[in-house]
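Quick one: structure for this chain?
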Amino acid sequence: MNLKRIFGALLTLLGIGGLIYASVLFINASGNSGNIKALIIYGILGLLFFVAGISLVRTTKDES
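Got it. Here's what it folds into:
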C-alpha cells in the first residue's frame, strides 16, 4: 500500500469527523455567535480535508 493512499485515507477520515462534528453543532445550535463561528470553521475544515483526501486517494496510482 502506498504512503500517499494512507495519508489520503487519513485526511478523508479527519474530514468526515469534522463534518460530523459540524452537523452536531448545527443540530445543537441555539443562536450563539460562538457556536456559529465554530460551526463554520469545523464545516469548512472538514470539507477541505474530505475533498483533499478523496482526491489524493483517487489520483494516486497503485504501483506493485
